[in-house]
Amino acid sequence: MEKAARPILFVSSPEPGLINPILVLAGELVRRGVPDVWIATDENRRDDIEAMGVSFASLGEVIPELSAVTWDDKVYRAVYSETSRFRSHRAMITTGYVPRLTAAKYRQLEAVVDKVRPAVMVIDSEARYAFNLAIARQIPYVVSAPFEMSNLLCAYAPFSKTYTPRSFPTPHTGLPYKMNLVQQASNRLFRLRTLAMFIAPELSKTLREEIAINKELGVTQPGTMTKVEKAELVFCWNVREFEYPLNPPDNVRTLGAALPPLPQAPDDEIIGWLDARPSVVYISFGTVTRLTRAEVASLAEVAGRLDGAHDVLWKLPADQQQLLPPAESLPGNLRIENWVTSQYDVFAHPHVTAFLTHAGGNGFHEALSFGKPMVSRPLHGDCFDVAVRAKDRGVGLTLDPVKTVDPAHVTKLINRVLNEPSFRERAKHFAALEWAAGGREKAADLLLGLPALAGDREPAGDRGPCR
Q1: Torsion from C-alpha of 231, 236, 237, 242, nearest 10 degrees
Q2: Which of 134, 229, 237, 311 has a 20 to 30 Å separation from 215 between CA atoms?
Q3: Which is it for the CA torsion 66, 85, 383, 145, positive or negative?
Q4: DSSP 8-class letter at 329
Q5: Rounded distance, CA 233 to CA 239, Å?
Q6: Within 327-406, where are the H helices?
Q7: Each residue of 46-90: pLDDT tens digit?
Q8: What stretches of 323-428 adopt beta strand conformation (E)?
Q9: Could you say which DSSP state residue 64 is in?
């Protein structure tokens, strides 16, 4: 059994896209018998974490402004702008950039750190308050990032430090690596508008507020690359070959998708349903997406157009199922679930042949790990960046325009990725790379090998089911 010298404290927002890799890595440590593993997050995740055998540290209740799941419809529609990627980018920043609220999380985390006295912290890449505290207390830390490397290493504004070429597509633009003249101009304009956004009165006032609060907390105002450069390691849950060319610092590691030991739910009824169907298209747009009634009806029609050749499993939240057409009009090849016991098991199933996705980093790379070609309907931020790389790497296609859900167009793209062998061949190529990257086991090895945790350990022995 491996033994850490002092506690390991994971810190994360409660959003599934950020906390899921942390749950997988913490679970790996528990399986290895590592003692004193803690996760600090919002109160709503307590039961999930304690059920893992991990110690839970509360950071209080969810703050609506800081959680995409609890945004009101006005904020949601602004972030998921139908007309402009920059408006979406701006809305995401202005909504989540509230120094007084993140300062409250900082103070709650201070109390946790005083209690736990961690040797190392593992922090989700969006928890700025946690990086500030780790740096102020000189606690070694590791970054957990479900995004492509460029989302951490590319400057969003001109003149800022960057680890990418100046011509690199700016994160959240969804621009390709090889740009035409119009795209190059759009890329430069996006950066200039980001800079102007922080110079404008509203955000410049917020920036001054943050500086004042950080001074009160005893925190040095961080630079744009501080969290990366001061980290012991940066764990990116994807593969380097999927990303566009860049020059990351030496502490960055790409580890493939964060997958737990499988199967998670071998006796699940959904798995039995998949066993009985030779080709199933899986649809999931994550936990944040709010489809309209028209979009729900269009996707139900897509299933009907696939009937006779493919079945469809659609993970649709319960509150959106009320938007479905009458049950008697739904096609017989469509199965709708508000939740699946293990999405990992769904991706691993050999009868799942394609994935219709919003191109969120976790789900995308999980599906890619099992060689599933994809059709993307990216909705915001980094989803645009994942989708364009998927197209360029030959593992999927993207709706054009991305905000439209036209049944004929969606069906055409799904049939293309199912019927043209190159998509599956390229997906299998990247699946091999995802597994070779090492996943949660490699991450655990790297984490436990840090100087702050290194020491005499008993042999790891049996680590349970393979990845």
Answers
A1: -170
A2: 229
A3: negative
A4: G
A5: 16
A6: 343-348, 361-369, 381-392
A7: 999 999 999 999 999 999 888 888 888 888 888 887 678 998 899
A8: 334-337, 352-357, 374-376, 396-398
A9: G
